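Exercise: predict the fold of this chain.
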Amino acid sequence: MMGAGLIGWAVFSVLVFPGLLFLFVLSLLTEWWVRKLVARAQNRMGPAYVGPAGVLQPFADFIKLFSVKEEVKQKYSSLGLAKAFAFTALGALSATLLMLPLSPVRLAAPYDIIVLSYLFCVWVPFSVAVMGMSTPNPFSGAGVSRFLTLYAVSEPAFFAAILVPAALTTYFTHSPLPYSVFYTAERSWRLWLNPVTAPIMAVALAGVLAAFQAKAMAHPFNIPEAEQELIAGHMTEFSGQILALNDLIHDADITVTAIIITYFFLGGPYPFPHISAPGIALLIVKYVAVVTVLSIIKASFGRFRIEQGVAALVKYSLAPAVAALIAAMAVSAVI
């Protein structure tokens, strides 16, 4: 019975919460929140017609693209390959959530932060790049090139930044599993109470937020899909189901990134118990705060050129993240 119960919880975690269904719903709700905030900041309405305050508009858009809009296929495109890698990216994003305390079935092991980075920082951007190249077009090729150029900086910066709370948690809170995603997410809030680790966490948080902006391809880093230059960049040939899946991956990437930042840097629901009304409320507030920061920056900046974007990422993301990681390893070594 215990084995059957464990299998049942595992299936529930993968398919429902915090797996595919939860990720789908939260991603589209997050899209609505970002679109609404950015629209208000720019004196526009934003989503307003489907559902209360337009909250169901992203769901209607997805259904329309996935089930109604025609899927255009050109001579040299490979839509099957694009869909296969789209589902690969969604699978990698869903698997990432299983490693956090959010999941009923929690996967925890020493140094499993490497697994998280492999799933989240490698397979997701690689899948998006393959999707772009599966519909060949000069604009698609240029968009993928810019996409990979940004990700060559933003992903190492993101990984270096999340290593900071992992390292500090391992040595300052005596984690039984070194560099574990689960234990880092569960205990990282304590690092803000220590006068030695709090400044290091603040620098790493600044770096990870800049990387978040680039991973979301939000202003000023919406360079791969610059409409005025590349029509839509790597998405130029996307239509129908491919476009719907691409938009879902984009929203899910924002969602999972925000959840990781919420747990690794803001402590998730802690210091309240994870399954409690105050804990759930605090987790939601922190998550919304992270997404709101993304939206405010997006509404406040114009688009960088590619060389400006790379330089800004190095200056405001990679350099602070690496500096914080060096400081974290230095203070950990003297404990």
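Check your answer against the key: Residues 2-333 form one domain.
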